[in-house]
Specification:
By secondary structure, the chain is an all-alpha fold. About 65% of the residues lie in helices and about 0% in strands.
């Protein structure tokens, strides 16, 4: 039976051959484990492409378009986070059978994730260029958002992206904690508990710091 246009465009035959054959699986759940991690890499690829587009739009002053793509990146990271819940359906006993089949493989080697860790600086530089042209400070954007609402929306998009990325890292740590435990060393010799530090590593730390200033300047009486 000839391939359909859909199959040729999506390259389904090639795509579905990238997983182990049934007779090669160390455990039935290995297919689930492999497919989810492959989709992680695909979604990270989409995010990295969007990050490049966001920088381009920021450089051209197209703030609405940049804010739109920032929200899309955040939604994509939400999809990645939801997928972690599916991995949590594996029992520790079943996972350890799969883990033995990984050899020295580790999520720390994920090329997509490692590139995501580096998107903060170039995106922040592009945003700072926009901020400089506007003549506004980050504090002023928060205190008077209506004066340049497109800029405020861009700030919100950056914060949402950062929040979703940190949330993904938190949920990933919880997955590891649930299935492996936090005292066990990874296949790279790093204690799983080290993952907790990633939950405090923001892409755009200045965005969060200024919120404290906004609050202090309003002088709330709580």
């Amino acid at each position: 039976m000839p391939e359909t246009d859909y199959e040729r465009y999506i390259r389904t035959e090639e795509l579905l051959s990238l997983q182990k054959r049934p007779e090669e699986l160390a455990h039935p759940d290995e297919l689930l484990f492999q497919v989810i991690h492959q989709t992680f890499e695909l979604w990270f690829k989409v995010c990295l492409n969007d990050a490049g587009e966001i920088r381009r739009h920021l450089g051209a002053g197209r703030l609405q378009r940049a804010a739109h793509l920032l929200r899309r990146m955040a939604l994509t990271l939400g999809v990645l986070t939801d997928q972690l819940a599916v991995l949590e359906t594996m029992t520790p006993a079943d996972y350890h059978v799969i883990r033995l089949a990984l050899g020295r493989g580790s999520g720390q080697d994920s090329p997509g994730f490692n590139q995501m860790l580096r998107i903060g600086e170039p995106l922040w530089e592009a945003f700072q260029g926009v901020l400089a042209k506007s003549g506004k400070t980050l504090l002023e954007v928060h205190e008077r958002p209506d004066e340049q609402y497109d800029l405020f929306q861009t700030v919100q998009g950056l914060m949402e992206l950062d929040e979703r990325f940190v949330r993904w890292r938190f949920c990933h740590f919880q997955l590891v904690r649930r299935v492996i435990g936090e005292e066990v060393r990874s296949l790279k010799g790093v204690p799983a508990a080290q993952l907790v530090h990633g939950m405090r590593e923001y892409l755009f730390p200045d965005l969060w710091a200024v919120i404290n200033v906004v609050t202090r300047r309003t002088g709330p009486q709580y």
